[in-house]
Amino acid sequence: xxxxxxxxxxxxxxxxxxxxxxxxxxxxxxxxxxxxxxxxxxxxxxxxxxxxxxxxxxxxxxxxxxxxxxxxxxxxxxxxxxxxxxxxxxxxxxxxxxxxxxxxxxxxxxxxxxxxxxxxxxxxxxxxxxxxxxxxxxxxxxxxxxxxxxxxxxxxxxxxxxxxxxxxxxxxxxxxxxxxxxxxxxxxxxxxxxxxxxxxxxxxxxxxxxxxxxxx
Length: 216
What we know:
Elements: H1 3-12, H2 18-30, E1 48-49, E2 55-59, H3 67-70, H4 78-89, E3 110-114, H5 127-143, E4 149-153, H6 155-161, E5 174-177, E6 180-185, H7 190-193, H8 200-214
């Protein structure tokens, strides 16, 4: 077992945040009608992708009926549909769809993770919950020793890794933090994609820029 796999086994067993534990398990038990036949994951979600990745995508937290159901980052919801289509279009993903953990999807030179590993109520983790989860991200990044670029999917992710004083977040914003080039990207939530705030060409442009920065 690799060090990254061992870390992910630790993450999956985490119960540090009582509110998040209760919520993720409640959602997994009650389910959504459309997914009543699913055996929900209902646990913390580890990162996913190429352990030799130069590009890391950092999101907020698992969606209640997305990754909290499937057990894989951005898998099984509309945000993931949009994101993986863009990753496929830019050569990072082997297929444009992500349905479940065993659907054959593979990432190349890309790794997807999140600042908080459990689905939070109203998609809003508390500062203390973000703090409790920070160790997992730090250890994960330390093991991704080829990573050079972090694409921050939304301001929450940007605030986690951006240096102080914190540069302003925006789509296409760039900053440096230690060995990483940081890239801002609007989160691929339905709120952004359905309104046109984030379009396919916009996110694909950020991903292509990430590849450029990773090569320098």
